[in-house]
């Protein structure tokens, strides 16, 4: 009789043993899942969990105990399953009892119940065991090994995915910071910003980062396949690789700063930079509220809270990518099971059908459940905004419309409405405005000229998105409450909710606070809401926001610093400045009206409800006007200013006949070709002067300083230094050019200095007029992606960068070893099974010899006589 093989698959074991092994697997999985859950809760509450743990509060301590306890009892389940398969029931039962006790004490109770049930299942197996049972050792199933080099390929794919998304889909605020400072700090500053975005953004409050890391974990885990631990390792590798990239970038920047190669930070930032977007974007939105509550940046409590907040965000990222990697491995195993199950159904083998039911496969069921739950993460989040609050027309006020026509014929319009009564709109100038130097809602569309009668501060120049700005002098604690009350008034009047992004002391002079609305609120929409608060018959009705949305303008409403005729206005005011395109006029008589010049939608008519409605138009000295000068309108020869009191005038518009030679139609441009390109692109910068008029200009002098010294380390100029060109005359239809090349070494936006052009023109009356024209600043956008960053990192960090080759060379060797070793082990097991399964040859038996039928005699049986 053949001996029973000592090795068999676990699926061939009796039902009681298979059930006990399954229960052990469930105990281990549930315990580990609870441990992952509690550890995730610890990470999510890290800023409050650490202080609570240091203060010995019960809940933080309980979370630690649960996490450690679940890890301990989870490991016991795996070992118990192995002992059940090897028929070591005594030790399995004893370990089940101890695990149950630990589960009740330190693992939350649920693992204790499961292990107690496992204890009974193992006891049931022992009771049904008979002395003559075959001593077969059952082998646990080998999970799918997945793809060859699966872990390495999964890591590379997931890492490249998050880097590509990080570089190409960087949020507006962080992109603005990178574009601003990368040309000064170097190309690795871009990598630092991308890595900070990927590592320290809270995935629970910023869905794009959550989706990105879930996708990376699923992608890497599915490619790695096989054991669940592979998904965890891929997620861990991707997370650590991103963290390492951030460390290398920080090291490069630190070396550059300490060596003195970094110049001063260029100011103002490039056009389009948004302080609001930077302050309300990822990472900053978590740190700034802590900063607002701190007494100073060096406050230990603030440093601790900021560090714990960043650690929480990084920990949540780690949890998301590793958990999704584990889930992806389960999906891989479930897919393998589904494929086998479908194959069995097609071939119709009943024996296999019985052993491969879906309901008997926990891995497959888990994968199916995960696939059903994944669409939940794609549910969109809808936000609602309240409509703007509308109210009746306010009371009396004063309005001024000032238009200045410069020598080059570019109109600059300034509109002021002062002493407004906006109480019907919800804005009441109560005691909360007493200490406010500025309390205004502003909309700045790349205008850097003037606020009221003074230059804008540097802070206002970088607010390119709608914002509520307050500046109070006095005790910060008192003014904070007053500023909050003002913010509530503006929020109601505009129908826009505000968020405090920061509050800064201004050198002992007071405290400046900036409130930001929803970042999706555009300048155009904000200007429309702002102008809806103004009287309907005022000069503001002349301006259509749609007509100026592509121009440079600045608008503010509230308590703004406006001085008229030496009197400081302390009431509610509206101030607006718009820069209109250049107009071309030469000598001779001209008729000018503001409606045509500025594109007003209505004629200029004074509001009867206004105390004063005054229009002024400033010309260059020497302008001759042919309109009636008295009594209204009036022309002041000393200031070359034309005044019209619309309150007492019946004129529907401001019309004047004048004789003034504006500059000829000379077009001056400074352009870059291409305007953007990857790091290392050579850009051709050309300064062009074109004479599109029918007159000749003389003594042309062009001076181009190229760029400021801030970019000296990361911008290669050829030839280097200020460029100049002169021409005695420039006749009609001709042009003059000046060119040089610029090669970018870093990413970001480079703002080249404007070129200055001087020329002379002789007017028809033989007057020689000198003109100075300045071009607009020219921008060069330098782009960097993952490939650029990899190559630059390898080049800049030699010989340290050769360490990056270790995973490239070592991983295939390790993966090959791990692929061969299990196959060799399984081959040996099959050989042993084959050896013991072969029946031995029958033993030789000593049978009695048959009687001899031939001649001879047998002494025991003599022949008969």
Report on the structure:
The chain is built from 22 helices and 31 strands. The strands form 8 sheets. The chain has an 11-stranded mixed β-sheet with strand order 9-10-8-5-11-14-4-3-16-19-18. Strands 21-23-27-25 form a 4-stranded antiparallel β-sheet, with no helix packed on it. Helix 12 (284-293) runs antiparallel to helix 13. Residues 350-394, 452-456 and 849-865 have low confidence and may be disordered.
The N- and C-terminal alpha carbons lie at a distance of: 51 Å
Kindly estimate the percentage of residues that lie in beta strands according to DSSP.
15-25%
**Total beta strands:** 31
Q: What are the low-pLDDT stretches, counting only 5+ consecutive residues below 50?
A: 350-394, 452-456, 849-865
Counted by DSSP, the helix tally is 22
| Classification by helices and strands | alpha+beta
Radius of gyration: 41 Å
Which sequence of strands runs across the widest sheet?
9-10-8-5-11-14-4-3-16-19-18
Keywords:
disordered C terminus; four-stranded antiparallel sheet; elongated; single chain; 865 residues; alpha+beta; 31 strands; 42% helix; eleven-stranded mixed sheet
What would a concise description of this structure say?
The protein is 42% helix and 21% strand. It has 865 residues and is of the alpha+beta class.
